[in-house]
Amino acid sequence: MLKKLYSQSNFMKSVFVLITGTVLAQGIGIVIMPFLTRIYEPEALGELNIYMRLVGLVSGVATARFEISLPLPKYEGHSFLLYKLSLRIAMFSLMAMGVVGALYYLIKPVSVYNISFLTISIASTFFIVYINLGTNWSIRNKAFKAISRQKIVNAVVSNGLRYGFGYLSFGSLGLLFATLIGYMVSSLWYIRDFVRLKKGTYKNYSKKKNKVLVKEYREFPLVNLPHVAVDLGRELLIAVLVTYYFGIEIFGLYSVSVMILRMPLTIIGTSIGQVFYGEISEMVNQGKSVHPILKKTILTLLMLSIVPFSLIYFFGEPIFEFVLGSSYSESGFYSEIMAVWLMTLFLIAPTSSLPLVLKRQKEFFFIGTFASITQVLIFFIFPVMWGGTAATFETMLWVLSISQAIILLGVISLALYYSKKRIKNASV
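Now predict its structure.
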């Protein structure tokens, strides 16, 4: 069936291009993971995950979400104006991050680790911003090979250096620095392309057009930005809560579990979602319905997810212990509990761009905020009421998994409903 879809659909061809690059990139991470878990303790991987969540939050909001609008304008010149606008906003955001970080460390004991953590975080955010902008520009131009190349380079460089620094006993700072170098190297192509475009075809700057475009896509900073800030801020807050109440070791085990369960989403769901965004943007500009392609995409993801998530649900603990080592068997147990939730999250991956294109960001923002508040309350109430024990953490994960799966099923239903309705406004 997949071969038939591939031969008949440009959508599926683009998906396969992205999946190929993503599979190779994630394959490198999967291969290196058993080696990393045998030279890094859960605490070090926990610190890496906190750093990833911090730079993910800052880079996610740094451009006021205008970078997500790049595939939408009908005219490429308008899209590049949004590209430059996003970059200017990001530079101010990075300066603000540096000031806030410096003020925070003024009230804490100064240490080499704290200074290094702040510096690496700011530098990482800078390169991630370029990666996000370059990715959306590539989606607009259907340059999916460039996206795949960036992912592969990032995986090779960062994972290779993580192992090398671990072998040299650099500890958690080695993990952070290796990740930074991976971002830097993989963003160089996007930075080069931006410089060429700025000096060439799109060197003119139009303040008047900028104002029109900001007005046209004002929902991105007004609605999508709070939505993303809530989602990513929730992830960072959960990391802080788990670390505070249960300790960095349990957070490290939990973060490894979440990372493994999200691999199918990263390998397949994100790739389909990126192509899906480009396709539905074009379909909406042509006045076509996006309901058929949304329905087909969700059904395809359902078929692809049943086997791997079922294996995790029934055999997560022994699989993790065998692959990652005895120190991470508890991560497998956590994965068994969260399998249903993360499978539902995998199904919803392509719908994340649907509110942007259909101009339904407000509706999905309220649902996302409700889901985020629910998660944070669960992570806060359980340890406060019943203590920061392993048994409390297990019960908390069960409640979290079931409640979030129910909410996400509601989001899928709402996405299918809105995909049948007319678009509110056309793009410029």
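The chain is about 85% helix and 0% strand.
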